[in-house]
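Lab meeting notes turned into a lecture example. A postdoc, R.K., suggested we walk through two folding results consecutively so the class can see how the record format repeats. The first protein's sequence and structure tokens come next.
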Amino acid sequence: MAYPLLWNSIQFDPSLGRVPGRPALTRRLSDLRAAFVNQSACDQILNLGDPAVYQVTQIEDQEGEGQLHYGLGIIMPGKVGDEYYMTKGHLHAWRPAAEVYIGLQGQGFMLLEDERTGKSTALPLSADRVVYVPGHTAHRTINTGNEALVYWGILSSQAGHDYGAKDRYDFRKVIVEIDGEPVVLDRDQYVDRLKADKR
């Protein structure tokens, strides 16, 4: 099937994480409740309101083999208990698809987890960094700074997004603030830490 070639050049505002004239998807804390370990802290915030956690503007003008999609993301600064604001996280529907993230502003991390092996790592993402996400890798972006984290994500037009897989189980690692610094912990280790704090 032949697709028309679309020439385009877009303008964007990196300080606001916006693409003028393009619709943006906003995810609020209520959309992400299940992603946070500390459900009690999440509910306390939700009782006072439902803050926007992040926003993504997808540019999906091109379709067909060899074409690219890209999205401008912005994660607000904030925490739920000790857990920093983050994206929902996802795998690609077409599992072999890789993705590149280009940091524009702020400080944060990409949490990566190989779906096949469970191996996890956290890589820094900031205005001077590019993160490569291999295929078959779940990925979540986390803002560990005091300002908005803004970035581009670039991927195959065939990649798609599979959020359902991460709804059935969550990342094995979390990034939390301890003594004023971001620390990577095993999820189970953080659960035990929260239980100990309640005693």
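The second example is placed directly after the first for contrast:
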Amino acid sequence: MTEETKYSLPKVWQWDKDNGGKWASTNRPIAGATHDHELPVGEHPLQLYSLGTPNGVKVTAMLEELLALGHSGAEYDAWLIDIGKGDQFGSDFTRLNPNSKIPVLLDRSMDPELPVFESCAILHYLARKFGEFLPADEATYSECISWLFWQESGASFVGGGFGHFYAYAPYPMEYPINRYTMETKRQLDVLDRLLANREYVCGDQYTIADIANWCWYGQVALGDVYDAVEFLDASIYKHVNRWAQQIKERPAIQRGRLVNRVFGPEEQQLRERHAASDIDAVL
């Protein structure tokens, strides 16, 4: 890089709305709605407004796991929020989540109706509501919450950092790719060392910590997100790969991955989900 091409910090940063690559239109330095838009509502108690990204899959996988256990109250309508078109900035969506990020869950069985946003917060809410996928003893419960929060905080590096600069930036940039690749690999190593001596994140019990971490680290390691297995040398994380493949084979995970999916083979895309039969038709 020559002196002429080096970035010079301005005295006051100004937003260039056309700068940012593929997802430039989804980011802006202010909050609030940009347009009026009424969200649809289905017949089930739980209404999900989402997209089949890793954060979105956390919730659909959790709901499908609950349904597999026989919790009929976990039936849900899943509505597509197209972030490329700015659906997340609609008035109804922004009312449910002032942060304008997917996913958002609206529990209509509560009085008044209760919106829950942030994917890991939704996982925790559903786990408590239905009494599943949370350890009963205090020590393991605390560990589960620690790993849940670890994933929530770390995903910004893997998704917003590595994913953006590796897959979506307008052109390759050495410094940010090196920075975020290093941190992504460090996090994979943290998880690999943990899983060397236990079946799941919190021991021998499958929990919301597994669901949350699998949707990011598991899918990245398997190449289902960013297609970066070779670049990350992900095969060296043998324990992560064992755990990731084991969870991927769960029927509920396979079902949840299809919901609100708008990429990949067309036959594996399901823009909306209102009944189990919607997923059955795609499998």
